[in-house]
Amino acid sequence: FSPNIATPITINDVNVSIDQRLASKILVGLPMFILMIVFASGIGMISDMASGERERRSLESLLINPVSHTCVFLGKWVAAVIVTFTITAIGVLIQFISVNMSPLAELGLRLDMGADKYLFILAIVVPIILFAVALQLFVSFFAKSFKDAQSYNNLIILLPMMPGLYLTFNAGSAETWQMLVPMLGPTALLIDIISGDGAGIIHVLLSSVVSIVCALACIGAGIQLLQREKTIFG
């Protein structure tokens, strides 16, 4: 008898996945780290300009001036947004440089992280920055002291981890319902962009609108909190 009878079928392993998607699986935590940079960038500044100024009694002297509480809150929010965006842009750029310098090609993988994707990711991150700064500023005014504000804001950094962990165990392209959930939509979009699948304009718009609505809600709540005498005098 022929020895080939023992192996009548030859099984060959064929990889049908895209190299870009395989590489993105290795860097599955990158979108989560990008969003964590957003929430970690302005913690010190935001905590100091709210609870810190109240402890130094400089907030009281600031509000004596003929400026509305709304303008004071929005001024602090805009300043924190600018600082947070600058630090985030630098942090994301460092992430991109590190990924492009990583030896993925030696593993037979390809990950295209050009300037177009960098700018696209920044565009998706901007509404998250507006929301993150408004939330942290509200929490800082709510906290009783500077240390409490930093502690609360450090806990807020964990917020991007929940959707990141969910999408790690529930892989797939971004879905419309995910765009309606704060933080989940932007995380799903970042994963698709890094994977090379791209992001739909409708999904980007929905995600941005949800983040902006959350930012406006936090701004409104923060202004109402700032108008309370207890907030000013501790």
Provide a count of the helices: 12
- The number of distinct β-strands equals 0
The share of residues in extended strands comes to under 5%
> Mean of residue pLDDT?
82
Sequence of secondary-structure elements: HHHHHHHHHHHH
Largest sheet report = none
How widely separated are the two ends? 93 Å
Low-pLDDT residue spans: none
Shape: elongated
Helix amount? over 70%
Overall SS class: mainly alpha
Task: Please give a structural write-up.
It is a single chain. The chain has 234 residues and is mostly helical. It has 12 helices and no strands. It has helices at 19-26, 30-41, 43-55, 58-64, 69-101, 115-142, 146-156, 161-169, 176-179, 184-195, 201-226, 229-233. The longest helix is centred in the middle third of the chain and has 33 residues, at 69-101.
Short key terms for the protein model shown above:
234 residues, 12 helices, mainly alpha
What's this, in brief?
With 234 residues, the chain is mainly alpha-helical. 72% of the residues lie in helices and 0% in strands.
Fold blueprint:
Layout: H1 19-26, H2 30-41, H3 43-55, H4 58-64, H5 69-101, H6 115-142, H7 146-156, H8 161-169, H9 176-179, H10 184-195, H11 201-226, H12 229-233
Helix pairs in contact: 2-5, 2-8, 2-10, 3-6, 3-7, 5-6, 5-11, 6-7, 6-10, 6-11
